[in-house]
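Q: Hi! First time doing this. I have a protein sequence and I read that you can turn it into a structure. Is that right? Here it is:
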Amino acid sequence: MKDGESGNRLGSYLRARRELVSPAQAGLPPGGNRRVPGLRREEVALLAGISPDYYLRLERGRDRNPSPQVLESLARVLRLDDVERAYLLGLATARPGAPRRKRPEQVPTRVHELLAHLQIPAFVEGRAFDVLASNPMAVALSPRLQPGRNRLRSLLLDPEERAFHQDWAKATADFVAALRTTIGDDTDNPRYVELVGELALSSQRFRTLWARHDVRRLDGGATTVHHPVVGELRLYRDKLPIDDVILVVYYPDKDSDSDEKLRLLAALSYTESSGTAQDAPAADPRPGAS
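A: Yes, that's right. Below is the predicted 3D structure, encoded as structure tokens:
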């Protein structure tokens, strides 16, 4: 996975971010004949207190060792938040080396047992938003939360997922930015290469968002979804790291309308599963059991 010419990730990031800053945001007159979106290179250099030639070398990858002071100035001019600033600093300090081998993503046995006991939607995701395990309530909330699915792929390519999210545009922007943050300098990871390559070919929305080079964390928060059976649900989301994976839980305010709807969904899910499995022997819930 390469960003820009010859893997010039620092230059690609600087170029993408300056194109998102308007002259007005930078305190400059808009001008009447601008051929590029956002700021010109020389304007960024002027505002950051560096020479235009040096900034050009940075964008073109001819100088990949800017000082922290230069990077801090650029972060200020480009209006980067704390996450984006840390990402910029990381791009400048990353050094090529031997590929890092990460352990295969495995769900600990105790987490499978925890999922079985939770009465709210809960699932386990990997670093690339692959669903590794889920409980029945998660699948009742969204069939796209079954193990083996990829949350970002579903979000971008599944029409039902688009209808599911109240603010699909924000959800896609958040997920794509979070993926870039997660990847960091692990750009040769086969799973990331595969996922980014697939989505770049199949989703215009992904291509547009990926070109922005947005980075952010996708942690806790509130979301509103539209379930096809019980209707609108306002839920909180928490993401809890466990070993090398993430446990994700969704839950409503206690005794709220969404709480009642979630209990109804649980009852419907139980009735449906009982009806389809009444003639079959009970499955062993232990991971790997046959």
